# Entry
Amino acid sequence: MEYSIWTIIWGILVYSIGIKWLERRGIIPKYIRSQGPIHTIHTERGRRLLEKLASPKRFWKVWGNVGVFVASLVMIATFLLLISSASMVIQNPTPTAFSQPKNMLIIPGINEFLPWKVAVDIFLGLIIGLVVHEGGHGIMCRVENIKVKTMGLALFTVLPIGAFVEPDEDSIKKAKRVGQMRMFSGGVANNFFVALICFLLLFGPISGGIGIEQGIAVGGVFPGSPAEQAGILDGDRIVGTEKGILFESWVVERRGSDEIQMVTVDRRIGIVGMSSNGPYKHREVVMGYGNNLVIEGVEVQTIGGLEELIRAKDVVLVQIGNEEAQRIPMGALVNLVEDGPWMEEDKTQWPPLGHIVVTSINGVRVVDSDGLTGFLKKSTPKTVVEIEYYERLESENRWVKSKQKVQLGEHPNAQIESGFLGVISSEGFSGIEFDDVGIVEYPAEVYLQMLGGGDVVMANGEKISFGSRVMLALQLPVISVVSANLPFNFAGFTDDNTNFYSVKNSLKEIDWVVFKLANILFWTGWVNFNLGLFNCIPTAPLDGGHILRKYIEIVTSRLSKKKQLQVVNFVCRGVSMIMVMCLVVAIFGPSLLSG
# Structure
């Protein structure tokens, strides 16, 4: 892939040099202007069409006023968002996949969150976004009696990447400031409107006609796991299996195939995660599925067998592979939350070192983090519970059993009605995440709900609003970075996941049409929203910078022209400099500041 990218870069460079050579010899027509690999084709045709589209001027002025209001709000929001983002990067410059500069580009294949398989959908959404954006400027130009010099297409080499309208600068200066603001906001208003229509259609009839196929959706398979050895692949759907049995026969429906396959899975326990604060040592050499697990001298092959062995004892002898056996407590590994109910009862536990393993609450054995979470979900605030736990005494190199009575508090999240203990729990058994299959399940139903194919319900039982659903949908391409509970990004209904979905209505026979339409609506809405958002950044030459300038001119209208120009330039350049600095920090800061 690295070779192919450099090939493209060199190809673009050679192409740009060739175009420059042709320009100097007058071979390329004057109505085509080039800047490296980017070309603009200018024409005066189409101005009559703009006149017709702009004829209901009263309507467009009302729409322009709405656009000014929306663009102004978004401009303020983007200003605050960029400052907040830059501040967060400075405070915590840890690089992430999302913060890599290449992932700021809307280029499928280069941006790792935008796969090649949806490149056509993204490209179509970008073309629609640019056309309606520039069309909005053009229509509002004629509504405000601003002359349009030329219109045309913008191309990257030979690929069209958008449209443009070139207004007459002298005509702009003669227009009223409010009219100029309507003209500058016309593009972003159209982008947000297109995004709104796309999400309304997607959340309504399109996603409403898509359902979930029965079975376990295989999103990923761990290397060396029983599932991999059985031949399970990403995108498979498993039907009719029961967990907890050592040998199982699974029915598999494979993507891209109508055949039903039978596979035999030999369950073998492995380790897929290990807390750095947990009681078990030798963490780095036991990951994976290649080591036998022995508890109290008995080899364990399934998670069910593990739970059965440790349920009767708090502290057990654990040996993984050829490593030295260790006697450790088995339960829920926790850190205490500062000022939480448990911390208030026992101040000696601060600071939390992560060496606390809860093994029992009110006499009920807790074998792992799920047991602790399950108990707390059923609890109520102000209930007094007795906790049995083990804490590590490093000075004596041993584990000591203790008891503590704690009155559960109100949960910090007011929407959660269960009791609050004041702990952060690590996954698994004493911080060890065991697995005996090796499948990472794809959350197909969750993603469909975010796209309108079902109701998304909050913790208090209320359904989320349309606006909140749009915000969730916009995060889907990067959802694995935003949410630790969702391990896969969602780029649409592609070959990777269509085995998990089906069309419920009469269009079932041409379900690919429904999936393609859903992808086009999703990416068109996504691109238009982000295009409108980006153009509202208050910096030149973006629309937000022009709108800000008009606001400053209105505020300073009583000053002399010379003084006004100085103040307007000072404020606009200052804000632009702040925005550019924030963008640089947000994009390059994690790599530069983290060393």
In short: DSSP finds 16 helices and 25 strands in the chain.
